[in-house]
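For the sake of transparency, this paper describes our internal protein records without simplification. Because each token names a local backbone shape, the row as a whole describes the fold. One such record is reproduced below, unchanged from the form in which we store it:
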Amino acid sequence: MGLLDGKVALITGGARGMGAAHVRLFLEEGARVVFGDVLDEEGKALAEETGATYLRHDVTSPEEWERAVGTAVEVHGRLDVLVNNAGILKFRRIQDMSLDDFDRVISVNLKGTWLGVKSVIEPMKAAGRGSIVNISSIEGYVGAEGLSAYSASKFGIRGITKSAARELARFKIRVNSVHPGAINTAMALDPDIVAEVDADAFVKSMVIKRFAKPVEVSHVVAFLASDRASYCTGTEVTVDGGLLTGAGY
């Protein structure tokens, strides 16, 4: 019996990286999955591989949120879980960062998360309960040089999560956040970051001295999405190998 048997899940940013790991694990755990992204080639390939439903989904667009949620309900008859996973990262120090770059990161990461929460309230109320899992970051706890916009967006996701948890508990909708650390994805290995970060010093600052596989985050997301986390809301879970406990970070 799967952890998510009978659940219908919508996952954003699902075409690659952590999002693709979420899609695969949710399917393994018995969920029916609709996922969106703006990476059509990768998204269609993953859909063909897994049998999940893919659609193009720009999370900054209210209209595309309406279409994504509507697709999940139309195809599967209900919506039980939202994983707000879509996000972008732009490494620029404040002095060198353009306002357009700052606005773009905030729009995708923070506005996109808020729109997601807003968009699923009615279908989850209709289903009688729901679980929303917002993907933040350890940069939602600590500032990182060159990541002012990203850190601001991930701090903001914590606030949205806390407020939504209070607002939506009356409808039996739980809202929690997950805070990954060093995960082996294309975004984390962005060339601009790799060029600026002392990789050896970074690994030495870790308690568990390695990058995580994306699925190691997915297992935590699946737990929070499941009924086994029925008494968890407003919860913040770090998946960082103890990085935030390291004195060197």
